[in-house]
Amino acid sequence: MSVDLNTLKTAGPTITALTRPFWDAAAEGRLKIQHCEDCGKAVFYPRPICPHCWGRRLAWKEASGRGRLKSFSEVHKPGHPGWLPAAPYVVGLVELAEGPTMLSFILPGLRPPRVDDALRLAPTDIGGRVLPAFKPVETGTEEKPE
Ligand SMILES: [Zn+2]
């Protein structure tokens, strides 16, 4: 993948009142996810009701940006033609340190991705907007826990 991702002609997100805090944070290069004020668990994707306890008191909080690659796929034939110039590229299921899993674009590392790779949030300009992509934490550059 050597294309400038920001030149891709990709479809943008459908932003609703429910998802706006996520997209506003993403535009600033940050990752915010919901946390349930009743059971304390983190929630992703954005929802009006906690999937763990059905509580309705969900608050937006900044995520650590740390995660683990749970699974991934190398995409050779994108579902939307706007992504073709970037193919092949990797999308992965990222298990966030807070618990929830999110689907995300995985930036290339020094070697091909492997399940269980440590990942770090890497806000990336893609198709004219900043998206919360992830990149591998390379061996030897592991960050110490905060
Ligand atoms: Zn809850």
In words, what does this structure look like?
Residues 60-107 form the ChsH2 C-terminal OB-fold domain. This is Zinc ribbon domain-containing protein. By secondary structure, the protein is mainly beta. It has one domain (16-136). It is 5% helix and 36% strand. It has 1 helix and 8 strands. It has one helix at 20-27; strands at residues 32-36, 42-43, 58-62, 66-75, 89-96, 101-106, 118-126, 129-136. The strands form 2 sheets. A 5-stranded antiparallel β-sheet has the order 6-5-4-7-8, with helices on one face. It starts with 19 loop residues before the first helix and ends in a 10-residue tail after the last strand. The mean pLDDT is 94. The structure holds zinc ion. Zinc ion is lined by residues 36, 38-39, 41, 50, 52-53, 55.
Give the helix/strand layout.
Blueprint: H1 20-27, E1 32-36, E2 42-43, E3 58-62, E4 66-75, E5 89-96, E6 101-106, E7 118-126, E8 129-136
Antiparallel strand pairs: 1-2, 1-3, 4-5, 4-7, 5-6, 7-8
This protein binds zinc ion.
Domain ChsH2 rubredoxin-like zinc ribbon: 23-58
Domain ChsH2 C-terminal OB-fold: 60-107
Pfam families: OB_ChsH2_C (PF01796), zf-ChsH2 (PF12172)
